[in-house]
């Protein structure tokens, strides 16, 4: 059984329901959540994250609208499809390289915010260049850090 614990950062300026959506999508991309997994109930999320149950329900409705989850009356909300690809899993060579790079950055004295700024800048540069070549325009983006924790039983 997979247990997802949402971490809500009240100082981020991002609404709590959106943080739940983002963290769920991150778990889907990383393969932490797979089709058939049950998401925590709104009551469980309220107890662990101190958010109103309606906030969680709003997030789950958004995920349902996107076709990622489905509610099953009397049973809960279940993952319908994944966003993961083999190269995005935590067992992929890219992930191993990224962890090694993060360790090197920490060893060089960089703090989490420094690393986040470097990653965001590199992503914007890489993906803006790719989008500009494909569409003839420049795209900009921002990266936010969310954390999804899970444990398997």
Descriptive notes:
This protein has helices at 16-30, 42-49, 53-65, 93-107, 112-135, and strands at residues 2-6, 69-72, 76-79, 148-152. The protein has 153 residues and is mostly helical. The strands form two sheets. Strands 1-4 form a two-stranded antiparallel ribbon. Strands 2-3 form a two-stranded antiparallel ribbon. The longest helix is centred in the C-terminal third of the chain and has 24 residues, at 112-135. It is globular and about 50 Å long. The N and C termini lie close together (5 Å). Residues 133-153 have low confidence and may be disordered.
SSE layout and pairings?
Elements: E1 2-6, H1 16-30, H2 42-49, H3 53-65, E2 69-72, E3 76-79, H4 93-107, H5 112-135, E4 148-152
Percent strand: 5-15%
Anisotropy-based shape: globular
Low-confidence stretches: 133-153
Please give the count of helices. Answer: 5
Oligomeric state, counting identical vs distinct chains: single chain
Distance between the termini: 5 Å
The structure class reads mainly alpha
Q: Which features characterize this protein?
A:
153 residues, mainly alpha, two-stranded antiparallel sheet, 5 helices, disordered C terminus
Short summary:
By secondary structure, the chain is mostly helical.
């Amino acid at each position: 059984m997979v247990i997802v614990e949402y971490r809500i950062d009240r100082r981020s300026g991002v609404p709590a329901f959106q943080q739940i959506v983002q963290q769920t999508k991150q778990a889907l991309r990383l393969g932490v959540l797979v089709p058939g997994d049950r998401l925590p109930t709104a009551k469980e999320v309220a107890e662990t994250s101190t958010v109103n149950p309606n906030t969680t329900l709003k997030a789950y409705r958004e995920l349902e609208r996107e076709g990622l989850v489905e509610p099953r009356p009397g049973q809960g909300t279940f993952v319908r499809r994944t966003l993961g690809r083999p190269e995005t899993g935590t067992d992929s060579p890219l992930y191993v390289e990224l962890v090694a790079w993060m360790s090197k950055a920490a060893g060089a004295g960089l703090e989490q915010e420094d690393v986040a700024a470097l990653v965001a800048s590199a992503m914007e540069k890489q993906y803006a260049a790719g989008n500009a070549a494909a569409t003839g325009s420049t795209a900009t983006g921002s990266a936010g850090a969310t954390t999804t924790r899970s444990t398997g039983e």
